[in-house]
Task: inverse folding
């Protein structure tokens, strides 16, 4: 699911009924006494990226979350405090930027794509999710279905309201740090639809299949659990267990949502850093994996990339600047259920046991005879990463 899923979830009116999944507010109230929420714990994937004497950060997120995850762990808090600005895929709190998602769709298009059996299937899933009838009826057809996907994890305590990106956005604004978007919703919407009614219809059918079978709920829970324990190896094997690349349409979607977007995201992060800012870039965790992952692409742009979570877990330089506010003290965000759906080869392990991304195509070559990493997903032109030598002669990637 792309980042715009969270915005769609915010548009869906959820009715309060006895048979509905627990609400986000109820989940928050139950967790207020949780020691995990009070203390915070390091979760997710974090890299330190350095160039021209400045340090920025690359954080792999998940676009939904659990109430106890609202406070970042100490390592993430330290990195946030050392940053000048927060960069997200999109900023769902910018009304002007979000306008493409809130504008009514062409009624004729809605009628063509959401009629007959497909319309009945969608209505049934809205009923199961306790979405108020008609709440999403004016949205682009694919967004009507996408809005439901972010609600599928509520029975497992996963809510778009507690999305990690949104939590970071609230923290940054409370700390008077600017928030920038690396993409725009209009571009994400085009990538999701594929630019044709035929492709959009195929994505709608696929999403309804996953909702009806319960497969999506299973995917969300396993993805969230892996993220929560910073399990990079499990995330790198996502194509092996997600069951989400079965058809050519699904494979094309994965290519659009990862391979086609990652260079744009990397260019935006590099542009902010090269402009003199220390950036904390928070992007879906599955954008970090493999030969086309962001750590690899940034290394190819001349950054020294060092894994911090899970590799060094808490070993940050002495902070010159502590966070101005504790993220747990802020109100929970009200949007976000986003996430990526595909992964590439796992990063390789090098010096001191810490993993590091392998150079992308066009970067420094891997040593001859190196062992390949995990196989990339279908439809990917990316070459597998290679195991790095203990002391590479001329590498920009710190291991």
Result:
């Amino acid at each position: 699911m792309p980042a715009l899923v969270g915005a769609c979830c915010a548009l869906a009116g959820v009715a309060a009924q006895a048979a509905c999944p627990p609400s986000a507010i109820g989940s928050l109230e139950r967790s207020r006494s949780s020691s995990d929420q009070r203390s915070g714990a390091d979760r997710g994937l974090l890299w330190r990226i350095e160039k021209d004497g400045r340090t920025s950060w690359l954080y792999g997120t998940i676009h939904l979350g659990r109430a106890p995850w609202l406070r970042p762990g100490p390592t993430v808090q330290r990195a946030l405090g050392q940053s000048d600005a927060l960069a997200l895929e999109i900023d769902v709190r910018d009304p002007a930027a979000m306008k493409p998602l809130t504008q009514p769709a062409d009624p004729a298009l809605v009628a063509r794509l959401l009629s007959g059996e497909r319309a009945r299937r969608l209505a049934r899933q809205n009923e199961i999710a306790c979405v108020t009838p008609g709440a999403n009826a004016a949205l682009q057809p694919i967004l009507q279905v996408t809005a439901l996907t972010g609600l599928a994890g509520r029975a497992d305590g996963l809510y778009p309201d507690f999305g990690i990106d949104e939590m970071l956005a609230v923290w940054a604004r409370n700390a008077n740090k600017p928030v920038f978007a690396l993409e725009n919703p209009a571009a994400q919407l085009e990538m999701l639809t594929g630019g044709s009614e035929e492709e959009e219809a195929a994505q709608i059918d696929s999403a309804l299949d996953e909702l009806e079978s319960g497969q999506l709920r299973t995917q969300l829970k396993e993805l969230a659990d892996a993220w929560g324990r910073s399990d990079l190896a499990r995330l790198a094997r996502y194509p092996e267990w997600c069951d989400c690349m079965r058809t050519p349409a699904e494979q094309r979607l994965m290519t659009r949502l990862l391979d086609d977007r990652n260079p744009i995201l990397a260019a935006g992060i590099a542009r902010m850093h090269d402009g003199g800012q220390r950036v904390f870039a928070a992007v879906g965790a599955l954008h970090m994996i493999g030969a086309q992952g962001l750590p690899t692409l940034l290394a190819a742009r001349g950054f020294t990339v060092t894994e911090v979570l899970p590799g060094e877990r808490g070993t940050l330089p002495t902070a010159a600047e502590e966070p101005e506010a504790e993220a747990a003290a802020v109100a929970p965000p009200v949007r976000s259920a986003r996430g990526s759906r595909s992964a590439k080869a796992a990063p390789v392990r090098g010096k001191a046991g810490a993993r590091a991304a392998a150079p992308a195509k066009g970067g420094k070559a891997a040593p001859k005879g190196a062992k390949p990493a995990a196989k990339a997903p279908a439809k990917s032109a990316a070459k597998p990463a290679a195991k790095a030598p203990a002391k590479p002669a001329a590498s920009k990637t710190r291991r």
